[in-house]
Design goal:
54% of the residues lie in helices and 13% in strands. The chain is α+β, with helices and mostly antiparallel strands and 331 residues long. The longest helix is centred in the middle third of the chain and has 52 residues, at 101-152. The model is unreliable at 1-5, 121-125 and 170-185 (pLDDT under 50).
Length: 331
Amino acid sequence: MEGENNILFYQVESGGIQIEVKLEDENVWLTQTQMQELFNQTKQNISLHIRNIFNEKELDRGSTVKDSLTVQKEGTRNVNRKIEYYSLDIIISVGYRVKSQRGTQFRIWANKVLKEYLTIGYVIDQKRVKEQARQLEDLRQTVKLLGNVIESKALNSEEATGLLKIITDYTYALDVLDQYDHQVLEIQSTTQEELFQITYPEAMKTIKGLKDKFGGSSLFGNEKDESFQSSLAAIYQTFGGKDVYPSVEEKAANLLYFVIKNHSFSDGNKRIGAFLFVWFLEKNNILYRLDRSKRIADNALVALTLMIAESKPEEKDMMIKVVVNLINLKN
């Protein structure tokens, strides 16, 4: 919280005076003029007490006084003036010296404000640390998934390039280091309006067209069981009346994952999964950016497909995050 500053307003209980209080560097600060209002004292009296506090070495000036540059309008001119602000220790000490009940009231209020400020600051700092640690762990897991693919399969140049592109593109979603663009690694910047819902008959017709166009064995697209229907139903499942996967990107990512991992077909599971993924994005009008370039390059799609195929079941959430962050509206 150091370096941050806020302005609070303290209402003097007697007299109805409202004083602007600066909150900065985990302390509260007032000027001599503000202390004059707070304690209902003359400027000369406040100055005398402050001078005596330093002369008697009750407090150290260096740690209790801050200079602030302000611009004041004097006639037609804007003039820079240096104003001294005094910390809570000085304010309390002056309050004791003038024997002011207002000083006690202000001390109680200021300590309450500081306690809340420090507590909130601590919570914010802890959340920031936890978030960065989680994001770093996400990056480690992504690298681990890439490593699993490399260890288990000899890659051609296209596949290797795709893996490199994923890790390069994916870093934009991390703010672990300052040089990365700031974006918390969550499911965000996604498309809520769904133009197209994939159905089992349409999907099977598309798979048949894929086989006819590109050729394939007699086992290509041959269903082994009803798991493909279950995969399609899964991306539209609801809980409490709300979609479990509310955005188009999340549905697409889970469609790709389910088709690849469920091995519903005797042959072609990875090709079918990748094709349906792209087809679903295109039907929902989010496959292309405004400049008509693809949100996800062909070699990156190949790499994603391999990563999912090699991933463990407990890595599913991580894989979905990777896919969504590569096709969301910020990519």
